[in-house]
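User:
I would dearly like some help making sense of a protein record. Take your time, and here it is.
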Amino acid sequence: MQTLKTLAAAAALVVSGLASATTTFDNGMYKVLYDETTSFGWISGSFTSANNAVGFNWNVPTSVSLAHNGGPAGSVTFALPSFKLTADSGYSLGGALLGSLGNIVYTEFNGATSITANATVSVNGGPDMVLPATPLGKTPSNAFSGVFSGSASAPLAGVTSIEVKNVWITLSASADSFATITGQTQNQLSFSFQAVPVPEPETYALLLAGLGVVGMLARRRRQA
């Protein structure tokens, strides 16, 4: 009996943990159901870019870092927020979903650093697709330091929902002297796309009526 009670209590904790692990961000054009329990926390903000794309972002916490002072190579892995993106009523997803992460600073003194990202994606509630691990690009600012950044995109044609989960980044470093990777709050993990208004049924009715009038006038001209 005690064992059953223990299992029931554990199950209750799991369920309550799952319930508190997700929250919804709704800006009126789209919804993001996401996990706010990673070190990235809550969505930092939303934006509209010059090409009318919309999106949302997280600030990269300072805990996303790695310092290596010689010896065997070291690495550390951080979970990024999982999320499900859907369009609000009256809108559809369009364009391409563009995800980007940067600019995370690195330093290397007789050493080497890298950041690798991986994720699983599901489209329209379909099967999970495990994406291959992808290294972020490095842009040096001098002989010893620079920044990591990376982006990837996928078309959203015919997509009503997209779910991104099991997202991880792995920071790795090796050095005879020392090497570091340092996340800063001005660094961002962001996703952008198009939120396209869907015409109301009345709009289609007016369009059809207009086409009917044009056709009738054309027939009258031919008869005249």
